Amino acid sequence: MVKKSFPLSRVYQLLEPGPVVMVSTCRDGKPNIMTMSWHMMIDFMSPLVGCVISEENYSFKIVKQTGECVINIPTVELIQTVVDVGNTTGSKIDKFATFHLTPKKALCIDVPLIEECYANLECKVIDMKIAAQYNIFILQVLKAWKTISKKRQRTIHHAGKGNFIIDGKMIKLPSKKK
User: Fold this and answer.
1) Domains in the chain, number
2) CB 123 within 8 A of CB 71
3) Domain of 52?
4) Over pLDDT 90: what percentage of the chain?
5) What integer pLDDT is reported at residue 46 of this predicted model?
6) What is the CATH number of the domain that holds 129?
7) What is the pTM of this model?
8) 70 beta partners
């Protein structure tokens, strides 16, 4: 196997952790949405998620001030909307209206879910100590919602520079339970 040097500025393309999500926020009754792909599970019970939101992003200040957000997981059918949401700022437009997305009332927080997404995680910020230095928020999932469907939902994964990978075939292998 022959290998060549890979640019450090593109290492993220090798390690993208999971599906591209849309994070909804709300401040002063004004909902917003951002596209995000930098997130990771930190703990399973109670579910904790770490996510990176750039301080230059409009949503950074909203999450920091309100301590709430919803992680909305879209499927491949929403790929163009996901890209368009990511290429605009909520400081200038209402993304729910502009992109014809349906806000749905959350149960535990004052942030709308995105109805068109197949899953939604209502979250509260439990730690933002490293947000100032690394833009990382630690979120506790308070309530999770998932669309009931016999069809397997295919998610979108960012591969860098406008490239995406769509979930493929699922492979099931036996695993030992401890």
Assistant:
1) 1
2) yes
3) 19-166
4) 72
5) 87
6) 2.30.110.10
7) 0.91
8) 24, 122
Please indicate, yes or no, if residue 9 is contained in any of the structural domains. no
Q: Within a domain: residue 89?
A: yes
Burial of 10 (0-12, 13-18, 19+ CB in 10 A): exposed
- Residue 4 predicted with pLDDT over 90: no
For the stretch 86-104, pLDDT in tens is: 999 999 999 999 999 999 9
- CA–CA separation, 60 and 68 (whole Å): 11
% of the chain exceeding 70 in pLDDT: 96
| Average pLDDT along the chain | 92
Q: How buried is 52 (Cβ within 10 angstroms: 0-12 exposed, 13-18 middle, 19+ buried)?
A: middle
Extended beta strands in the chain, E state: 21-27, 30-36, 39-43, 48-52, 68-73, 103-104, 113-114, 119-127, 136-146, 156-160, 163-166
